[in-house]
Automatic annotation (TrEMBL):
One of its GO terms (molecular function) is phosphate:acyl-[acyl carrier protein] acyltransferase activity. It catalyses: a fatty acyl-[ACP] + phosphate = an acyl phosphate + holo-[ACP]. This is Phosphate acyltransferase. It comes from the Bacteria. It is an enzyme of class 2 (transferase). GO terms for cellular component: cytoplasm. One of its GO terms (biological process) is phospholipid biosynthetic process. Belongs to the PlsX family.
């Protein structure tokens, strides 16, 4: 399996990205290969600095870089040799089986959709993020790929995320909840109301109805469906809340006796690790005709290392085949929404 990694994507690129790729090499299968996409001389210098001599890793030259604040479509047009654009072309021509980037999310979604295309029957792809909860993992889709959703998009997010939760997370029958401003059927805008009808009409999904933001943390469902604007706000708010909570706990422990603080430190670290996005690698862009993972902009080396193995699992579990099969059997069509 060949996995292409955007060496210039993210706040800590290329150092952390290159380091993560090197960390992953020792745990790859013998037939696996990593393709580091970025300015060749710069990336090679980083590899030399890490003492990397030989292994299943190739540098693919991509002299241009798309910044995190650049317009996705305009930057792809003006920078056809950027790392994101080149990586998408590798996947299009079958030279990469999976792509990973912590770069500009909009540019990634646009490039992957334009070059790799979507799966048959998929209208718009969605980014699916796994939230680790005490009651079990919760998959939220979409968290930023599509901020102007139609009911058919949200319905397909529920279906694709259910397939993902079943195949990757091992949930036999994922419970699907639709994000709204209240649990009652009358709550929500017209898009939410129409989406609820579509989700409810599919007997293959265990649709539990509307949910509220707080329900994500209560373990009432395994899949949350929402448009990208809402999902991204949920994602960033949760990250900030978790970080602030652990800072507060740390501050309180520091004020206690040293023995008491040391006693609780291992417990706090275990809990933090379970809620650390770096441990989960990247979020799959569901609906793309290929394996594409989008990582957090502040990804560190272990994020990229874990993203490599997440990409391998998605590929080997043939998620796309299962999504295509599920969509082909769906009664809901674009004309219905």
């Amino acid at each position: 399996m060949r996995i292409a990694i955007d060496a210039m994507g993210g706040d800590y690129a290329p150092d952390e990205i290159v380091a993560g790729a090197v960390e992953a090499i020792n745990q790859l299968d013998k037939d696996d290969e990593l393709l580091l996409v970025g300015p060749q001389e710069l990336i090679q210098a980083k590899l030399d600095g890490l003492g990397f001599k030989k292994g299943p890793l190739t540098v693919v030259d991509a002299p241009d870089v798309i910044g995190m604040d650049e317009s996705p479509v305009d930057s792809l047009r003006s920078k056809p040799k950027s790392s994101i654009a080149v990586m998408a072309k590798l996947a299009k021509h079958g030279q990469a089986d999976a792509v990973i980037s912590a770069g500009n999310t909009g540019a990634c979604v646009a490039a992957f959709q334009m070059r790799m295309r979507t799966l048959p029957g998929v209208n718009r792809p969605g980014i699916a993020v796994v939230f680790p909860m005490s009651a079990g993992p919760v998959t939220i889709c979409d968290v930023g790929a599509n901020i102007a959703c139609k009911p058919i998009n949200l319905y397909q997010y529920g279906l694709m995320s259910s397939v993902y939760a079943k195949a990757i997370l091992g949930i036999a029958r994922p419970r699907v909840g639709l994000m709204s401003i209240g649990q009652e059927d009358a709550k929500g805008n017209e898009v939410v109301k129409r989406t609820r009808e579509l989700l409810r009409s599919d007997p293959r999904m265990d649709f539990i109805g509307n949910i509220e933001g707080r329900d994500i943390f209560r373990g009432v469902c395994d899949v949350v469906v929402c448009e990208g604007f809402v999902g991204n706000v949920i994602l960033k708010l949760t990250e900030g809340a978790v970080d602030g909570l652990f800072r507060a706990i740390k501050q309180e422990l520091m004020q206690e006796k040293a023995r008491l603080a040391l006693k609780f430190k291992p417990i706090i670290m275990r809990v933090y690790q379970k809620h650390d996005y770096n441990e989960y690698g990247g979020a799959p862009l569901l609906g793309i005709n290929g394996t594409a993972l989008i990582c957090h902009g502040s990804s560190k080396s272990r994020t990229i290392r874990n993203a490599v193995f997440a990409a391998k699992k998605c590929h080997t579990q043939r998620i796309n085949d299962k999504i295509t099969e599920c969509l082909s059997e769906a009664r809901v069509r674009t004309s219905d929404a």
